[in-house]
TrEMBL record:
Superkingdom of this protein's organism: Bacteria
Gene3D superfamilies: Glucose Permease (Domain IIA)
The protein's name in its UniProt record: M23 family peptidase
Record's keyword terms, sorted: Signal
Signal peptide: 1-19
Domain M23ase beta-sheet core: 139-221
Record GO terms (molecular function): metalloendopeptidase activity
Pfam families named in the record: Peptidase_M23
Length: 248
């Protein structure tokens, strides 16, 4: 099975023509493949069925690569960190009512209307990406340990992309993906292994809608649980956020 997936993945990107015996190199290679796939979905240069197949191959392989990590570090004790430093669940938009998973399709960018995520708002009345009280950038923190599998850090106002600058992190213990979006600045790279509470970005206003004056400055947070077939299913993180540790 492992060899079959490796051969199939080699068709996705030239990166797979390179040897990747070390776990770190394999993680980087798989992350680059997902980053490429993410761009193809966003730009609608791949059919949804093909995108779904490639996603399954990438994350089936990633599960195998991270199996040792999972066996050594995962436990029944699950700890969450609130994803914005010095903020808490009171800043979740609509007290969680903004979570709308119906109609979500990760593989078809043309499908719109769902919002399987929470927007967490910060104090930024003048919309300069700085906290109104501290006048400092606001840190985005990883909720859980994981591996960075995709980032965007070059969004510009001319772009029509909705997510703006973003970070995708795969959590081997939960076997799912965290998506953090709209950053002013990204501080991690594909292949990085992060810990819970580690800074990964700074809250911003990037993205087609997030950049508009009518939008309050916020972090967009989504979590996708992988099914046994390695397909992404949205899961409501409100309870995790409500019970998460706040880092001042």
């Amino acid at each position: 099975m492992y060899k079959f997936l490796t051969v199939c993945l080699s068709l996705i990107s030239p990166l797979f023509l390179m040897a990747a015996d070390a776990p770190g190199a394999q993680l980087l290679t798989l992350g680059q493949a997902f980053l490429q796939l993410n761009a193809q979905i966003r730009e609608q240069t791949i059919e949804p069925d093909s995108a779904q197949l490639r996603f399954r191959l990438i994350f089936s392989e990633l599960r195998e690569v991270t199996d040792g990590y999972r066996q050594q570090t995962c436990s029944d004790s699950i700890r969450f960190v609130f994803p914005i430093k010095s903020y808490d669940a009171e800043q979740i938009g609509g007290n969680g009512s903004g979570y709308r998973p119906f109609g979500f399709n990760l593989f078809d960018h043309a499908v719109q209307g769902s919002h399987p995520a929470h927007d967490i708002f910060v104090y930024d009345r003048n919309q300069d990406n700085l906290d109104d009280q501290t006048e400092q950038p606001i840190d985005v923190l990883a909720m859980r340990p994981g591996i960075v599998v995709a980032t965007e850090s070059n969004w510009s106002p001319e772009s029509t992309y909705r997510g703006g600058n973003f970070v995708w992190i795969y959590d081997p213990c939960l076997d799912g993906l965290f998506y953090y979006a709209h950053h002013s600045r990204v501080t991690v790279q594909v292949g990085d292994q992060v810990t819970a509470g580690q800074k990964i970005a700074e809250v911003g206003r990037t993205g087609l809608n997030a950049a508009k004056r009518r939008s309050g400055t916020h972090l967009h947070l989504m979590y996708l649980q992988l099914t046994p077939e390695a397909l992404p299913m949205p899961l409501n993180t409100y309870d995790w956020l409500a019970s998460a540790q706040v880092i001042k």
